[in-house]
Amino acid sequence: MELTVNGHAVFAHTGGRPFDPARPAVVLIHGAGMDHTVWSLQSRFLAHHGRSVLAVDLPGHGRSGGGPLASVAELADWVPALLDAAGLPRAALVGHSMGALVALDTAARHPDRVESLALLGVAERMPVHPDLLAAAAAGEPSAVELVVGWGHGPRGHTGGNPTPGLALIPGSRRLMRGVAPGVLGVDLAACNAYVQGAASAEAVVCPALLLLGALDRMTPAKAGRSLAARIKSSQVVTLPATGHMVMTEAPDATIDALTPFLGLRRG
């Protein structure tokens, strides 16, 4: 599905079903240097179990036009414009990593537009090592290797994938190598600069689910639990043997957690 948001074409995958703005909607927001394909299994499940789905490519990512937005706050203000373009007064937001910060900040800045909030691989602060920032800004291949290697738990490094025909590390590497030059650097800089996590969490008024990987080295589960404690109405699910790439490393467990939180049934 293609929308026009702030004058630029934006692509959103609808999970294999026509988008209907009259149904309860969920927006899936990917992380740094990625696109909507990281939500392949979740978007399809949600679309076939009662939700209208927008698994969006953020500006400058995937099949969306324009350039990447330089800050989490800009992206958070972009989300309501996306909802307007889709004819949605409000939606549930599900975000991963940078996308989780965007979802969190959107809920704090635009509470009337957010029904509920699910945050995967998240922490109050997401500092990025200066060497990685520099490598990403310069477009060096090592930046992708660092993110992909550090971002996956043991399951990703030992082969196999819950999705038939795919492998976690090669799949992520291919995805991130395909982004436009400079995009990963902009995204990582936005994560590094975001310092409003605590204040945003305390401003959230909708229900929140934090879905954390027990072996996440980028946003450790302990940091996720600390963030959850700042949200008025939150619940935490910690997935064993899972790293930062929660929705691809543990896709079924991710669906199992999202299903009751979003008021859906597995059957």
Helix vs. strand class: alpha/beta
User: Would you identify the CATH architecture?
Assistant: 3-Layer(aba) Sandwich
CATH superfamily (homologous) name: Alpha/Beta hydrolase fold, catalytic domain
* Whole-number total of structural domains: 1
The overall average pLDDT, rounded, is 94
Q: So what's the overall shape?
A: globular
The span between the termini is: 27 Å
| Main sheet: strands, sense, barrel | 8 strands, mixed
SSE layout and pairing:
Elements: E1 2-5, E2 8-13, E3 25-29, H1 40-47, E4 52-56, H2 72-86, E5 91-96, H3 98-109, E6 114-120, H4 130-137, H5 141-151, H6 154-157, H7 168-177, H8 183-193, H9 197-203, E7 208-213, H10 221-228, E8 234-239, H11 246-249, H12 251-261
Parallel strand pairs: 3-4, 3-5, 5-6, 6-7, 7-8
Antiparallel strand pairs: 1-2, 2-4
Helix pairs in contact: 1-12, 2-3, 3-9, 4-5, 4-8, 5-7
Describe the structure.
With 267 residues, this protein is α/β, with parallel strands linked by helices. It has a single domain, classed as Alpha/Beta hydrolase fold, catalytic domain (Rossmann fold, 3-Layer(aba) Sandwich). Helices cover 41% and strands 17% of the residues. Helix 2 crosses helix 3.
